């Protein structure tokens, strides 16, 4: 495995960062997870735009050729289907101080992991997921893809302790998203998803699903979803770059709709698969 660290492509085992790096000490950093299929970045432009949004929002300097860095890394790792993790920290302060010097040189790290090509899986082989619903303990800038993921990790583990795959988050009585995914609800043939706001990440897959719904005459609405609406849904889906669109068939121990993967999910799965192949 070859990783990228501050301008160098090196074997993963040789990568070293300082313990005084602010990403390590404070989680003072942002990230992206970008899928590459058959060696090509999927919705790469959108991921880079979101990275630039995160960097600007936390005032970490940018100005790198992200495309060149990532494409080269994927090439060095043999191309194919990979998810690329890219992290940019504010840099190494040399000591632990909350305040930072604006001239710090950001630390840039990227590595690859195999990703399942969702276009290679048949809808019938996709398993319905179980989820729990729990309090959203995060801050109010979830539109920034920050590496401060402690709340996400804790509630995902809570889900795992209940033999569930994902935790869906509730803030002020409304569903926001999952620990690392956006959420969709289907009721009477209409697809609903929470509006974009600073309480959720503007998912690249979420945007694509809405685009595909639009192009294919599937009715959708960006709207508030409360706990009762969630539990009364005919279908619930989650979306992310590494998981595509997956059906949730049990929530808090109750079946979603009839407890089976829904027809609109199967349709969207097919549309996403076709989009990915083209
Ligand atoms: N997570 N919401 C949150 C909180 C996320 O962390 C993610 C992605 C999403 C989905 O966004 P996208 O469709 O752009 O992947 C929504 C990545 C995959 C991760 O943390 O691994």
Describe the protein.
Strand 3 (29-37) and strand 4 (40-41) form a beta hairpin. It is globular, with a radius of gyration of 19 Å. It has helices at residues 22-26, 44-58, 66-76, 150-161, 204-215, 227-231, 263-277; strands at residues 2-5, 8-11, 29-37, 40-41, 82-89, 107-114, 129-135, 166-171, 174-178, 182-187, 190-193, 220-222, 235-240, 244-251, 254-255. Helices cover 27% and strands 29% of the residues. The mean pLDDT is 97. The chain folds into 2 domains: 2-115, D-amino Acid Aminotransferase, Chain A, domain 1 (2-Layer Sandwich); 123-277, D-amino Acid Aminotransferase, subunit A, domain 2 (D-amino Acid Aminotransferase, Chain A, domain 2). The strands form 2 sheets. Strands 7, 8, 9, 10, 11, 12, 13, 14 and 15 form a 9-stranded mixed β-sheet that branches. It has a 6-stranded antiparallel β-sheet with strand order 2-1-6-5-3-4. It is built from 7 helices and 15 strands. The longest helix has 15 residues, at 44-58. It is α+β, with helices and mostly antiparallel strands. The chain binds N-(5'-phosphopyridoxyl)-D-alanine (PDD). The site of N-(5'-phosphopyridoxyl)-D-alanine has 14 residues, from helix 5 and strand 13.
């Amino acid at each position: 495995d070859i990783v990228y660290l501050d301008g160098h492509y090196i074997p993963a085992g040789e990568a070293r960062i300082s313990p005084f790096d602010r990403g390590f000490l404070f989680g003072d950093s942002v990230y992206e997870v970008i899928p590459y299929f058959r060696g090509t970045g999927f919705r790469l432009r959108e991921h880079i735009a979101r990275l630039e949004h995160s960097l600007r929002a936390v005032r970490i300097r940018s100005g790198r050729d992200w495309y060149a860095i990532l494409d080269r890394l994927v090439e060095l790792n043999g191309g194919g289907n990979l998810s690329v993790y890219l992290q940019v920290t504010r840099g190494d302060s040399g000591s632990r101080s909350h305040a930072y010097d604006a001239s710090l040189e950001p630390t840039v790290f990227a590595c690859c992991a195999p990703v399942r090509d969702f276009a290679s899986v048949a809808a019938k082989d996709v398993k319905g997921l179980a989820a729990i619903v729990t309090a959203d303990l995060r801050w109010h800038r979830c539109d920034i893809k920050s590496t401060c993921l402690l709340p996400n990790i804790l509630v995902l583990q809570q889900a795992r302790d209940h033999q569930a795959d994902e935790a869906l988050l509730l803030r002020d009585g409304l569903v926001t998203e999952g620990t690392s995914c956006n959420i969709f609800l289907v009721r009477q043939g209409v697809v609903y998803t929470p509006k974009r706001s600073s309480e959720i990440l503007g998912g690249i897959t979420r945007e694509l699903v809405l685009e595909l719904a639009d192009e294919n005459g599937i009715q959708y609405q960006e709207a508030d979803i409360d706990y009762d609406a969630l539990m009364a849904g005919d279908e619930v889906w989650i979306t992310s770059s590494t998981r595509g669109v997956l059906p949730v068939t049990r929530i808090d121990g109750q079946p979603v709709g009839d407890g089976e993967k829904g027809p609109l999910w199967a349709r969207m799965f097919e549309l996403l698969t076709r989009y990915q192949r083209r």
